[in-house]
Design brief:
single chain, 310 residues, alpha/beta, Rossmann fold, 2 domains, five-stranded parallel beta sheet, 35% helix, globular
């Protein structure tokens, strides 16, 4: 199958393009948001082909995977000359939890009975109002980085992109309080302002795994791929009990709570006790391999693609 999708979410796309299809990724000379092309810091297979607007217009395309309102509204048709859902099969991947009051959480594709909305968590599926659009839930899967955990550094790792801009949504305001309990090493794009580090993925995984515990204080986002990757690495988790986290992190894989005193105590205990940290991390890895495996993710996508192109 030939699938057109924009390079919007690097980690998620890295998992999807491991499938057995041919993937067409739009590219522009400036490699901006509407034409990033192939990933520069992730390992993508040869089945991912960059396409210019001219090439996309004449390309054979079986399905368009949309990820932003602009793609649904005009971008896909402008690039391909085909209307998604009408002239070519289309799936809208909703990566995010909805913003705003619950009563107003209506999805951009809500009036489109010809475009399936694929949510990445069951939490998101319950909160988004998708109207008459068909819906599915395909939970995340990741390329297994391996059981790299050593926990040799008595500190917590936290991964968040743009922590200053995103602020309370990702729990940036809680960071100072956590750092009063244990050292917290911050990683992610534009994290330098808070003493963080922006690293390529292969190095990020190794640095995360050297820390004793993974901290996830996000208030309102979809289930972060960095959390799932941390579990694959064999890291124990300390996290706010929000969105999909209570479902994704088993009780014996870490500590999940909305009480700061509980989270603070858990960080102190796990950083001070390497044996408990390692044991909980091993359970986290088993849980992640069972629920968020790449094989399951790709099988779910194959089933959905077959359904929408039938």
């Amino acid at each position: 199958m030939r699938i057109l999708l924009w390079h919007v979410h690097g980690s998620w796309t890295t998992a999807l393009v491991q499938g057995g299809h041919h993937y067409l990724v739009p590219v522009l000379p400036d490699r901006g948001p509407d034409g990033r092309g192939r990933a520069q810091t992730w390992d993508w297979p040869a089945s991912v082909e960059e396409v210019t607007p001219a090439a996309a217009r004449s390309a054979d395309i079986d399905c368009v995977v949309l990820q932003r309102p602009s793609e649904l509204e005009h971008l896909a048709e402008r690039w391909t000359g085909r209307r998604p859902g009408r002239d070519v099969a289309a799936v809208y991947v909703e990566h995010n939890a909805p913003d705003g009051p619950v009563a107003a959480m209506r999805h951009p594709a809500a009036e489109r009975g010809d475009v399936t909305v694929a949510h990445v968590t069951h939490f998101n599926a319950r909160f988004w109002d998708c109207g008459r659009a068909p819906t599915a839930v395909i939970e995340h899967g990741v390329v297994d980085p391996g059981h790299l955990y050593s926990g040799e550094i008595a500190a917590a790792a936290m991964v968040v992109n743009e922590p200053v801009r995103r602020g309370r949504v990702v729990g940036t305001d809680l960071l100072a309080g956590f750092r009063r309990q244990v050292p917290v090493d911050l990683f992610g794009m534009a994290s330098e302002e808070l003493g963080g580090h922006d690293l390529p993925q292969w190095r990020l995984h190794r640095e995360m795994a050297r820390r004793r515990v993974y901290l996830h204080p996000f208030r309102w986002t979809s289930l972060g791929l960095s959390l799932i990757e941390a579990m694959h690495l064999g890291m124990p988790v300390v996290a706010l009990a929000t969105t999909e986290v209570p479902e994704a992190v088993p009780a014996d894989a870490g500590v999940v709570s909305n009480r700061l005193d509980v989270l603070h105590a858990a960080l102190r205990r796990l950083v001070a006790d390497p044996d408990e940290a390692r044991a909980r991390g091993e359970r986290a890895r088993r849980a992640a391999l069972g629920r968020f495996s790449l094989a399951r993710f790709l099988a779910d996508w194959d089933a959905l693609l077959k359904e929408v192109t039938a």
